[in-house]
Automatic annotation (TrEMBL):
Entry protein name: L,D-TPase catalytic domain-containing protein
Positions of the catalytic residues: H135, C151
GO terms under biological process: cell wall organization; peptidoglycan-protein cross-linking; regulation of cell shape
GO cellular component term, pick one: extracellular region
Record's keyword annotation contains Glycoprotein: no
InterPro entries noted in UniProt: LD-transpeptidase, LD_TPept_cat_dom, Transpep_catalytic_dom
GO molecular function, one term: glycosyltransferase activity
Pathway of action: Cell wall biogenesis; peptidoglycan biosynthesis
Superkingdom of source: Bacteria
Annotated source species: Sinorhizobium americanum
PANTHER family associated with the record: L,D-TRANSPEPTIDASE, L,D-TRANSPEPTIDASE ERFK_SRFK-RELATED
Length: 203
C-alpha cells in the first residue's frame, strides 16, 4: 500500500512508515454508526479518518491533526477536489509564525515539497470554503500526532486512495469526542457554486 507511485505527475517515492504506529495504517475495521455509507468521519482524538462502508464496516486511515486550539470540528462537505494542488499559507498562519510562513506568502507550486502532497479535499460549510483541508503530507512521521496548523493530514498513498473513492459533495463529520449518532444531512444542493480560483490553504 505504501510503495512508490511512479505514474503520478510528480512520481512519489515509497512512504516511510517506519516511525508510525501500525494501527495508523490503512485497514478495514468494524465501525457501527448511524452515518450512511460514503460519509467521512474524522475522529480527531484517536487520529483516525473513517470512510463508512455500511454493514457496520469502514475503511480506517491514520491521520495527523491540528495543534490544540487549531482543530476543525463540526460538519462540512467536500466542496472541491484537487490533484497536486498549489499551497498558500493563510493570513493567520503568516501572522502566527511570520518567520516560517512569511517568505511563502506568495504560495508554493505543486511538487514533492508541497505541504499538501498529491491530493487535497477542500472542506466547505454552507457553500463557503472553511480553509480546512484533508490532504497529503511531506512528513509521514506526523501521522498519529497533533502538529498541523488545523488541517487533516494523511499518508500520501492514503489521500490518493480516499480521493479516488469519494466525490465532491461528500459529507464530512469531524468529531472531538463520541462518534456521531444523528441522522444524515439532506443531500447537497446541486446549485452550490464552487470558486474557480484557488483559495488560500491551511495545513
Amino acid at each position: 500500500m505504501y510503495g512508490p507511485h511512479p505514474d503520478e505527475a510528480f512520481p512519489l517515492p515509497a512512504t516511510d512508515i517506519s516511525k508510525v504506529d501500525p494501527r495508523f495504517l490503512r485497514q478495514q475495521v468494524p465501525y457501527p454508526t448511524y452515518e450512511p455509507p460514503g460519509t467521512i468521519v474524522v475522529d480527531t482524538p484517536n487520529r483516525y479518518l473513517y470512510l463508512v462502508q455500511g454493514d457496520g464496516m469502514a475503511l480506517r486511515y491514520g491521520i495527523g491533526v491540528g495543534k490544540a486550539g487549531l482543530e476543525f470540528a463540526g460538519e462540512a462537505r467536500i466542496g472541491r477536489k484537487a490533484q497536486w494542488p498549489r499551497w498558500i499559507p493563510t493570513s493567520d498562519m503568516v501572522a502566527r509564525e511570520p518567520e516560517r510562513y512569511g517568505p511563502l506568502a506568495g504560495g508554493l507550486d505543486p511538487g514533492l515539497t508541497n505541504p499538501l502532497g498529491p491530493r487535497a479535499l477542500y472542506l466547505y460549510q454552507d457553500g463557503k470554503d472553511t480553509l480546512f483541508r484533508i490532504h497529503g503530507t511531506t512528513e509521514a512521521w506526523s501521522i498519529g500526532k497533533a502538529v498541523s496548523s488545523g488541517c487533516i493530514r494523511m499518508f500520501n498513498p492514503d489521500v490518493i486512495d480516499l480521493y479516488n473513492r469519494v466525490p465532491e459533495g461528500t459529507r464530512v463529520v469531524v468529531i472531538q469526542a463520541q462518534p456521531p449518532m444523528e441522522p444524515a444531512m439532506p443531500p447537497i444542493d446541486a446549485s452550490m457554486q464552487m470558486p474557480a480560483e484557488e483559495a488560500p490553504l491551511a495545513f
